Amino acid sequence: MNKTVKFILFFVLPIAIFILWLGGFLSHRVEPGEAKDKGKVVSGLPVLTVEEKEVPNVYKADGMITAENNAKVSTKWMGRILKIYVNEGDYVKAGQTLAVLDDSEIRQQKNEALAGLEELSKARDEALAARKAALENYEFAKRTYERFKNLYQENAVSKQQLEEIETKMVAAKSMVEQVDAKLAQLKAKESQVKAKINQVDIMAGYAVIKAPFDGYVIKKMNDEGDMAAPGMPIFIIGEKKLQFVANLDESLLDKVKVGDTLKVKLGDREVEGKIVEKNPNIDPMNRTFKIKLDIPYSESITSGMYGKILIPISTSKKIVIPKSAVFKWGQLTAVYVVGQDNVIRLTYVKLGEDYGDSVEVLSGIKPGDKIIASQTEKACDGCRLGG
């Protein structure tokens, strides 16, 4: 075999075959055209026809849940807060201890007062013993004077002797009076010390912060270790009875009245409240007036919660669909629209007002469209609806 044939067989031919393989000439080729995709078939999904419904137009106003009565709990004693026993939102009973302040200075004052009272007690005992001795001396001097007086009248003793005995009697009486005066002073001091002890006991009560009535801890103003100052609130306690307070536009002044029942939206829930107070005076700054509604008690509703009051003012026709028909994808909302060919298409929509289990659709679908009413997790874009 010559060199030319070897070159063709071992070099040119392999390269030619490799080029043909890369170009697809050695494999089966699919004819060009549009692929037909039958799509996945889903069954058992409820379908509804979109239509307009008469629904109320609702005026919404921001408001807040408050306790009917609030109390700012403070102390008359300046001291460091040693312990706080409650947290915001806790329910407390009247007289329950909320916090304890450092009362070491109070206890020191009381110990000093008690020590002073004990010293006064000893001094009083000594004075009473001295009075007893002085009184006995006076009684003896008095009897001696009476005897010498009789002897003087009988000329048995001289006038000088009688006057000497009288002087001793007067001196003994004076001693008794001095001791009585000292006892009076001790009694006055004892009363002062006892009054101070009572005052210290009252001050000790200021170091224990207690709930003034049954209610909730709306706000805790301090933490353990903070200094509590007289008159500065440590807690805000609200009663169990709750109210919703809102400011309404002046155009609604004649549309609401005391006794009306209105809905209040608190997050994802709605409650009903009765208007118990209406201030007809219009605020010139924002042209609103204030109303208060009694809210039924619930452990999950606490003072300070934000909400909206809902007031129906008129009606109009809107596209309203069940919330179960809405498919949420992140921040986007959509529905599954069923075409005339029974193919399901994911269609993005813009939602409006909330009506409990239903919601308004502002754009994306129109009356007459058919959509999947529920079980949207079973649907898919491009699927075919089966029987």
From TrEMBL:
Membrane-crossing residue ranges in chain numbering: 7-26
Subcellular location(s) of the protein: Cell envelope
All copies of domain Multidrug resistance protein MdtA-like barrel-sandwich hybrid, residue ranges: 70-235
Any single biological process term in GO: xenobiotic detoxification by transmembrane export across the plasma membrane
Keywords, comma-separated and alphabetical: Coiled coil, Membrane, Transmembrane, Transmembrane helix, Transport
Major place of residence: other
Gene Ontology MF terms: efflux transmembrane transporter activity
InterPro entries named in the record: MacA_alpha-hairpin_sf, MdtA-like_BSH, MdtA-like_C, RND_pump_MFP
Coiled coil regions in record: 117-196
Residue intervals of the Multidrug resistance protein MdtA-like C-terminal permuted SH3 domain: 319-376
Pfam families reported in the protein's UniProt record: BSH_RND, RND-MFP_C
GO cellular-component term (any): efflux pump complex
PANTHER family hit by this protein: HLYD FAMILY OF SECRETION PROTEINS, MULTIDRUG RESISTANCE PROTEIN MDTA
Family affiliation: Belongs to the membrane fusion protein (MFP) (TC 8.A.1) family.
Protein name: Acriflavin resistance protein AcrE
Source organism per UniProt: Sulfurihydrogenibium azorense (strain DSM 15241 / OCM 825 / Az-Fu1)
Lineage: Bacteria, Pseudomonadati, Aquificota, Aquificia, Aquificales
